[in-house]
Design goal:
Structural class: alpha/beta
Strand content: 15-25%
Shape: globular
Helix content: 25-40%
Number of strands: 5
Distance between the termini: 20 Å
Number of helices: 3
Largest sheet: 3 strands, parallel
Radius of gyration: 13 Å
């Protein structure tokens, strides 16, 4: 998962999930970004926020509520860019 965009429907509110995200960031093994079609749960969001606040260079943008159409459209090999304003741009497959 390191360096890859993870595109998921949602997270489930596990206390371990936020800690796993934080630990991945602390080892510099975090995803490039987390993109959700539905709202992120507060515990996973907390892990992402704490990593950004407590760790140096813990870059892992998180965007939620992208909609079901997003998950239906995105595929392996596509280039995904998360802009500073939270806009997610998806470009066709890279060859």
């Amino acid at each position: 998962m390191a360096g890859k965009a993870l595109c998921l429907p949602q997270t489930i509110g596990s206390t371990t999930g936020g800690l796993v995200l934080y630990c991945a960031c602390s080892m510099n093994r975090q995803p490039a970004c987390l993109l959700f079609s539905n709202p992120i749960d507060s515990l996973a969001a907390a892990g992402s926020v704490l990593a950004a606040v407590w760790l140096d260079n813990a870059q892992m943008p998180v965007v939620d509520c992208l909609g079901e159409e997003f998950l239906n459209y995105v595929q392996d090999g596509m280039t995904i860019t998360v802009k500073e304003d939270g806009t997610v741009q998806v470009d066709g497959p890279t060859i």
